[in-house]
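User: I'm curious what two different proteins look like when written out as structure tokens. Can you demonstrate?

Assistant: Sure. I'll show them one after the other, since each token string lines up with its own sequence. Here's the first protein:
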Amino acid sequence: MTSTTFTLEPTGLELRFRRATLVAREWLTRSYVRVRLQGPELAGFTSLGADDHIRIFFPDGDPQTVEELRAAPSREYTPLAWGEDWLDLEFAIHGDPTAGTAGVAAAWAATAPLGGLAGVGGPRGSKVLTGRPDAWLLAGDETAVPAMRRFARAMDPAAVGRILVEVTDAAHELAIDAPAGVVVEQVHRGDAAAGSALATRLDALDAQDRPDGSVFAFVAAEQSIVKPGRALLLDRWSLDADQIIVKGYWKRGETEYHAPH
């Protein structure tokens, strides 16, 4: 049996709600945007796990109470980076925000005027990776890129492994900085359903592709990725269920679906 070199420890956090202002927007591709929120209430914000979820609220106007803020439309996202009074988030834009075919979060990320208000709730808890995996496997679509970026930042220079990023095509590739021993592969789906190309890529990995030692694996995309992800990690690679994360980050046809914590 492979000895364990790391653990995933559930850690609770005090749930807080904060107000912040949209101050910057950077388009990384035509359908993927990074935004920055800023404000004094972000002081003390922390996120201990790379896969953390926070709830972003999109109020119409200037709510004066937490109850009014929480009544606004909201969606869950992974915090990418933060400082004393700022927070960076990334959004995959599906549909056309100017034509009303995008969801509330995508429309806000793409078109909300700078200076507008947003709310930030959480995170309420984290899964904290402690120790050092012998190898890594990260696999996800655009919605999982912030978490994969954060996991990659946690790798030391000697880390080895593989990162699979499913995107539409070469024009939509999202680079992830990783150590030299970690191969980053862009998986193009073209016109196929989101998650299908990533599922095919995972299905192509077999027992002989399993890295040696204690492997940490993170797989997240559209809900249909859960079955092929678990088939690879639990059945073919025989990893410990307590040392992997496999999630459907979103569900086709359900705009308000959110991944389990």
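Here's a second, unrelated protein for contrast:
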Amino acid sequence: MLTIGELASYAGVTVRAVRHYHAKGLLPEPERDHSGYRRYGADAVVELIRIRMLAEAGVPLARVRELLRAGEEEFAAAVADIDRRLAAEIRERQRHRARIARLTSGDGLALPPEVVGFLERLRALGVDERIVRAERDGWIPLAARFPERVGEWIVRKQEQ
């Protein structure tokens, strides 16, 4: 049998969290022993870990209570739904990260990769940066207005 501190430590939560879960009706409060201490068994450890994991996954405590009372199939379906939601959130955050990374990409922020490559080749050839910037400034409205034609135009430009 475990004390509340041992239970909390084992499950990776604070004693305060255990008491909070008692107050919310998520974790049954055990009887106290002859010395006045709560003593928890293995079932409490399993339940507390389930509560913690659901809460960490962003499940509201009211929903956690429902899930803990649900049957195996309903619980499994809910967990699968939570997993799908988390996977969608991860994909969205990865898209945000890619957008943020583009902020340091210089010309790549406003231009397609083939134009950026062209401008980089100009720089590598030693073309004056003012000329490269003028090229860039011309490509931005063209790429914005006619994105489908950029590939064709960049080929012609490289042939010059």
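A detail about the second structure: The helical segments are 4-11, 15-23, 42-56, 61-69, 72-102, 113-124, 129-145, 150-159.
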